[in-house]
């Protein structure tokens, strides 16, 4: 019996191995340490003079620049030394000022011909490649304040609908105060409002002119608002991170008012910081009429022209919470815009407000919560104090031509980048409370390099021991098994690169285990061939019988292991999933190399002609 493969099987094996070689090659080109510069508004405007001055400043500081690359909305400065990253970032930040976002990055160096084939290196986890670690603090007091502002607006609308005259409303701390002309109006309003807002504690107030009452949130209601705020922020941040396309991100609650966000190996760390930390929201308000009382209006500047301003109603028609979807597009003049779709409630409120105000201007107000650091002296020491503040600006003021429904568009944006980021923020949901960066830490490449070196060492030691064992034990067949093992590792790396699977330290452990398990199939086959030879079977028959009879045992053993790996992936956390991914892919590649690649090489060496003896 002659062991031969048809030509198509040899071609299939060669094609798979060539495919694996090409798509594993990008992992041989290490990433360059880099510093990325972008604007805090997303649209970068860095002149050639500024770039030249930056390069000169870096050269004067002894920081060697490899290349400077311009992208549509950023500038990437590649460095030759990893240790220079932090110094370069600090120097660039000091030179450019607060209008720019400067972030550390790792830039791919894959050759163009590989990139044209969509070949890219494996995605490395936070423990290997590094990344960014954000600790965000949720402003719980602002969450309560925002809820009270919304309630105050609803109370004013309810009083107008019931034609109950009131003077003004005021929000202070956890209390809303409402003043009336007389006690009769106050009592009627209190009876009405207490039915709609049962979570408040009410108290009558006597005024020099007229009467009033205060309504204070109970402790249970405050706790409920704050718990909702942090849970809603968690959901919103997860949606934003998913939009960024980061592999295996971590977004979780820490303590009563903090959220941890870890983004391993992000390609655009500046954009990640800008989007994760953004607290942008929208408000839709009508422009105030000339006869509107001053206490019901608010003057706001235009965002792209602070010298201009408009008087708007304090009452909000809807906010960004009512947006169900948002996409970026361009108007008939080629200017960026955002197409908005509202949910059912938002569409009803928008239609009701615009239906009775055709011909009146409606403004879209962009709201962003920020912080600034201020140095103060306390007990003779300089202390940096973080001060939160809110920026409100009008991005669009247009006349209502007809009653609006669930769909409309926002114009007046500065750039397509700003329109894209605004649509992303609206799609992912607005924040229930402002968030601030309590801590920002970039996990440097040095930690990743150290972990990678140790992981590679473990793979190398395991590989060498397996190779030596197979050579000593099975001689010529051991050489064949070792060649197949190298192909197996190549295919595994190629599969992880192509599928975008994230490699972590537990994943490296899965690769080491795969190397050990990969030769199990060959051990079963070779021992079966030995047994058949001892029983007096011819060489060709022994080879055929060894592969055929060991096939079932190999498949059964690998399928049970694959089942365990799938279970680990489905119920495990991040590190366990990383182990399960490499183990699952390793099982598939090892079955291919053990059953087909080694059989093909054995057929080429020993098949097609009679043999009396083989080295096994």
UniProtKB/TrEMBL annotation:
Gene3D superfamilies per UniProt: 3.30.1360.200, 3.30.70.260, 3.30.70.3400, Multidrug efflux transporter AcrB transmembrane domain
GO CC annotation: plasma membrane
GO molecular function, one term: protein-transporting ATPase activity
Residue span, Protein translocase subunit SecDF P1 domain: 230-287
Residues annotated as domain Protein export membrane protein SecD/SecF C-terminal: 438-602
Superkingdom to which the source organism belongs: Bacteria
Chief localization: membrane
UniProt organism field: Halomonas huangheensis
Stated name of the protein: Protein translocase subunit SecD
A Pfam family this chain is assigned to: Sec_GG
Annotated compartments: Cell membrane
Function: Part of the Sec protein translocase complex. Interacts with the SecYEG preprotein conducting channel. SecDF uses the proton motive force (PMF) to complete protein translocation after the ATP-dependent function of SecA.
Keyword Zinc: no
Residues annotated as transmembrane: 452-472, 479-501, 507-529, 550-571, 583-606
């Amino acid at each position: 019996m002659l062991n031969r493969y048809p030509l198509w099987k040899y071609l299939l094996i060669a094609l798979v191995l060539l495919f694996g070689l090409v798509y594993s090659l990008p992992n041989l080109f290490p990433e360059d340490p880099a510093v990325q510069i972008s604007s805090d508004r997303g649209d970068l405007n860095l002149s050639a003079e500024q770039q030249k001055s930056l390069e000169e400043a870096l050269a004067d500081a002894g920081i060697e620049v490899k290349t400077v690359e311009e992208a549509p909305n950023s500038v990437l400065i590649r460095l030759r030394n990893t240790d220079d990253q932090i110094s370069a970032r600090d120097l660039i930040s000091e030179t450019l000022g607060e209008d720019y976002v400067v972030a550390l990055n790792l830039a791919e160096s894959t050759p163009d011909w590989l990139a044209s084939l969509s070949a890219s290196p494996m995605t490395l986890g936070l423990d290997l490649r590094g990344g960014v670690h954000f600790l965000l603090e949720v402003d719980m007091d602002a969450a309560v304040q925002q809820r009270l502002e919304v309630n105050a607006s609803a109370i004013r609308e309810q009083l107008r609908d019931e034609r109950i005259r009131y003077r003004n409303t005021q929000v202070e701390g956890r209390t809303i105060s409402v003043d009336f002309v007389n006690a009769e109006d106050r009592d009627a309003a209190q009876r009405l409002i207490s039915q709609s807002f049962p979570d408040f504690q009410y108290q009558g107030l006597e005024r020099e002119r007229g009467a009033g009452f205060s309504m204070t949130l109970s402790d249970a209601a405050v706790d409920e608002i704050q718990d909702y705020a942090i849970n809603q922020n968690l959901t919103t941040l997860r949606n934003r991170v998913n939009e960024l396309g980061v592999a295996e991100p971590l977004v979780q609650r820490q303590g009563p008012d903090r959220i941890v966000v870890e983004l391993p190996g992000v390609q655009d760390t500046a954009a990640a910081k800008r989007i994760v930390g953004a607290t942008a929201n929208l408000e839709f308000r009508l422009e105030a009429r000339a006869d509107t009382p001053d206490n019901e209006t608010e003057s706001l500047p235009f965002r792209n022209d602070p010298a201009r301003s408009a008087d708007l109603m304090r009452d909000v028609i809807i906010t960004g919470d009512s947006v169900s979807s948002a996409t970026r597009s361009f108007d008939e003049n080629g200017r960026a815009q955002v197409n908005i779709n509202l949910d059912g409630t938002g569409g009803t409120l928008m239609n009701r407000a615009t239906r009775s105000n055709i011909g009146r201007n409606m403004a879209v107000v962009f709201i962003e919560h920020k912080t600034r650091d201020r140095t103060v002296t306390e007990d003779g020491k300089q202390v940096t104090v973080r001060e939160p503040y809110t920026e409100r600006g009008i991005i669009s003021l247009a006349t209502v031509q007809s009653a609006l429904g669930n769909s409309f568009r926002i114009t007046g944006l500065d750039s397509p980048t700003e329109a894209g980021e605004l649509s992303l923020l609206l799609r992912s949901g607005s924040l229930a409370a402002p968030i601030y960066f309590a801590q920002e830490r970039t996990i440097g490449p040095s930690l990743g390099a150290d972990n990678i070196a140790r992981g590679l060492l473990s793979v190398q030691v395991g590989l060498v021991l397996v190779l030596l064992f197979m050579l000593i034990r099975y001689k010529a067949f051991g050489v064949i098994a070792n060649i197949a093992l190298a192909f197996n590792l190549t295919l595994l790396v190629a599969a992880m690169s192509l599928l975008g699977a994230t490699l972590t330290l537990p994943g490296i452990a899965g690769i080491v285990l795969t190397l050990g398990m990969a030769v199990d199939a060959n051990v079963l086959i070779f021992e079966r061939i030995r047994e058949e030879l001892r029983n007096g079977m011819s060489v060709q028959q022994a080879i055929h019988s060894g592969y055929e009879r060991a096939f079932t045992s190999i498949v059964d053993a690998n399928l049970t292991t694959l089942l365990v790996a799938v279970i680990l992936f489905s119920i495990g956390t991040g590190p366990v999933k990383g182990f399960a991914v490499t183990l699952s892919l390793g099982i598939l590649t090892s079955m291919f190399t053990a059953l087909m690649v080694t059989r093909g090489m054995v057929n080429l060496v020993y098949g097609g002609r009679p043999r009396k003896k083989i080295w096994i």
